[in-house]
C-alpha cells in the first residue's frame, strides 16, 4: 500500500455521518474523541483540517458516493487554499480497505470497530505513514472512548453490534462482524452519564438490539432486564430501542412494553416482505404468519403501540403475486411509519448473484405503490391522534418564531408554539395532523 503524502497535524475537524442511527452514534463519538485530543469542531467541511466521512454500505453505489464526496471536498477546499486530511470511517472503509487508499489517496481508513484508534492513525498520517485499521478486535472500542459530557435531549446509546442472521441481501455481518453485546455495567454507566449530561430520552441501538444479552454472575439477562434497570435512573424520562429482529422478540421484552412506563409505545420491527417465498430466499427465518401473530401479542401487551417496519421491493425472483402479499401485509398491520427501499445488490452477498434479478422499472413501479399504501397508513395514524393528550420532548427549533419541534411517545414529530426550552417535556393536545407530522397545543 502506498503511504499518503505527509500532512501537518490537524487542529480543526468535521465529521459527516451517513446512514443508520448507529452511524450517527459512532460519528458523535468520533467527534468527542477528536475534541478530547484538543481539536476544534467546525460545521464547514471545506475549511476543516481534518474531514471524517463516516460511511454506510447498505445502499447501492454507496462506495461511488464516497469517492464523489472525497473529490468534492478536495475541489472546494482547494479553492480556499486548503489541503485537508481525509479519513474514511465506517462500513465502506471496512469493505474497501486498501482499495480506498489506492484509488483516492485518502489519509486514514478505519473500520467501525476500530475508530477508537483514530488519534494514533491521524498521528501516523501526519508523519506521512500508512494509516489503515479495519481489525475487528474482541476488545470492544467503547472502553477506549472519552466520557460523554454534553448530549441532546434525545441521545443514542449503542448496546449491541454486529449480526449473525446473514440475510442474503445484507452486508452487515461482513462490515460490522458477529453479534457482540456490551456488558451490562458499561451500558448502565454510560446511560447514567448521558442523563447527567442532559439526556431525557435514551434510544438503545444495535444491528439486532433485541438480541442483546449479558451472561454475568447473576445469569443471562436479556434486553428487557436492561430496560428495567435503566427505568430506575432518576432524570431519565423515556426509553426506546432499535433495530429489532422478529426472531429475538422475547416474551420478557413484549411484557416490558406493558410494565415499564418509561418504555415508549413504539416498535420498529422490520419484516422486509409479506411473501413467505421471498422471506425464505432472504434467509429472514420468520414467516408472514409468525410476524403477524407476534404483532398481535405486542398489541395485546400495549394496545396503543405505534408500529414501524422496513420493506425491500424487487428482491430477486419477486413476482407480482409476492408483491401483492407485501401489500396485503401492510393493509393488515397499519404501520404508523415505515421505511421502504428498492433492492440493491451488494457485492459479496448471496442475493447479488441470484437469478431473476428484477428490472429497475418494475422496482420503481412497485415501490411507488408500496409507499402510497405506507403514506396512507401514516397519515391515518396521525389523523387518529387528533384530540389525544400526551407529553412531548422538545428537541429543536421550528421554522416559525416561538415554535419548537419534539417527539410524541409514538415518535411523531410534533410542532408546538411555546415559550418552553429545548429539553423540556411539555403536555400538549394534538390539534392538527399532517402526512408527516402533527401540531400540538399546550394545555
Give a written overview of the molecule.
The chain is of the alpha/beta class and 443 residues long. 34% of the residues lie in helices and 23% in strands. The protein contains 13 helices and 21 strands. The strands form six sheets. Strands 2-1-3-4-5-6 form a six-stranded parallel sheet, with helices on both faces. Strands 17-18-19-21-20 form a five-stranded mixed barrel. Strands 7-10-13 form a three-stranded parallel sheet, sandwiched between helices. Strand 18 and strand 19 form a beta hairpin. The termini are far apart.
Summarize this entry quickly.
The protein is globular. Helix content is 34%, strand content 23%. The protein is of the alpha/beta class.
Proportion of residues in extended strands: 15-25%
Output the number of helix runs.
13
The gross shape turns out to be globular
**Helix-strand makeup class:** alpha/beta
Uncertain runs are none
Number of E-type strands: 21
The overall pLDDT average reads 92
The helix content is 25-40%
Describe the strand arrangement of the main beta sheet, using strand numbers. 2-1-3-4-5-6
Amino acid at each position: 500500500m502506498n503511504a499518503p503524502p505527509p500532512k501537518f497535524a490537524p487542529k480543526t475537524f468535521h465529521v459527516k455521518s451517513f446512514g443508520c442511527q448507529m452511524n450517527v452514534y459512532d460519528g458523535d463519538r468520533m467527534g468527542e474523541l477528536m475534541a478530547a485530543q484538543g481539536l476544534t469542531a467546525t460545521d464547514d467541511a471545506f475549511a476543516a483540517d481534518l474531514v471524517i466521512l463516516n460511511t454506510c454500505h447498505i445502499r447501492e453505489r454507496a462506495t461511488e458516493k464516497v469517492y464523489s464526496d472525497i473529490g468534492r471536498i478536495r475541489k472546494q477546499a482547494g479553492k480556499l487554499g486548503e489541503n485537508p486530511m481525509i479519513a474514511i470511517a465506517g462500513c465502506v472503509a471496512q469493505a474497501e480497505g486498501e482499495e480506498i487508499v489506492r484509488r483516492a489517496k485518502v489519509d486514514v481508513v478505519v473500520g467501525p470497530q476500530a475508530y477508537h484508534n483514530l488519534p494514533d492513525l491521524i498521528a501516523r498520517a501526519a508523519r506521512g505513514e500508512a494509516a489503515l485499521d479495519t481489525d475487528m478486535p474482541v476488545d470492544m472500542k467503547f472502553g477506549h472512548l472519552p466520557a460523554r459530557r454534553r448530549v441532546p435531549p434525545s441521545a443514542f446509546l449503542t448496546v449491541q453490534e454486529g449480526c449473525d442472521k446473514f440475510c442474503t441481501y445484507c452486508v452487515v455481518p461482513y462490515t460490522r462482524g458477529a453479534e457482540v453485546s456490551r456488558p451490562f455495567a458499561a451500558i448502565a454507566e454510560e446511560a447514567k452519564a448521558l442523563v447527567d449530561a442532559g439526556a431525557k430520552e435514551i434510544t438503545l441501538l444495535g444491528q439486532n438490539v433485541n438480541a442483546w444479552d449479558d451472561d454475568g454472575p447473576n445469569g443471562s439477562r436479556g434486553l428487557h432486564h436492561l430496560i428495567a434497570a435503566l427505568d430506575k435512573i432518576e432524570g431519565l424520562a423515556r426509553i426506546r430501542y432499535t433495530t429489532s429482529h422478529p426472531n429475538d422478540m422475547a416474551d420478557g421484552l413484549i411484557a416490558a412494553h406493558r410494565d415499564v412506563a418509561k418504555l415508549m409505545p413504539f416498535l420498529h420491527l422490520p419484516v422486509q416482505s409479506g411473501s413467505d417465498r421471498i422471506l425464505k430466499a432472504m434467509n429472514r427465518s420468520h414467516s408472514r404468519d409468525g410476524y403477524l401473530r407476534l404483532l398481535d401479542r405486542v398489541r395485546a401487551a400495549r394496545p396503543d403501540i405505534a408500529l414501524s417496519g422496513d420493506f425491500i421491493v424487487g428482491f430477486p425472483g419477486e413476482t407480482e403475486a409476492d408483491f401483492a402479499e407485501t401489500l396485503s401485509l401492510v393493509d393488515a398491520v397499519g404501520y404508523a411509519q415505515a421505511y421502504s427501499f428498492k433492492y440493491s445488490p451488494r457485492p459479496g452477498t448471496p442475493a447479488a448473484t441470484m437469478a431473476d434479478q428484477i428490472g429497475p422499472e418494475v422496482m420503481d413501479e412497485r415501490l411507488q405503490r408500496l409507499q402510497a399504501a405506507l403514506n396512507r397508513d401514516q397519515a391515518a395514524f396521525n389523523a387518529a391522534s387528533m384530540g389525544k393528550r400526551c407529553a412531548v420532548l422538545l428537541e429543536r427549533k421550528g421554522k416559525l418564531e416561538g415554535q419548537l419541534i419534539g417527539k410524541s411517545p409514538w415518535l411523531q414529530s410534533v410542532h408546538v408554539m411555546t415559550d418552553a426550552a429545548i429539553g423540556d417535556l411539555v403536555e400538549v393536545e394534538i390539534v392538527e395532523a399532517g402526512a408527516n407530522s402533527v401540531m400540538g397545543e399546550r394545555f
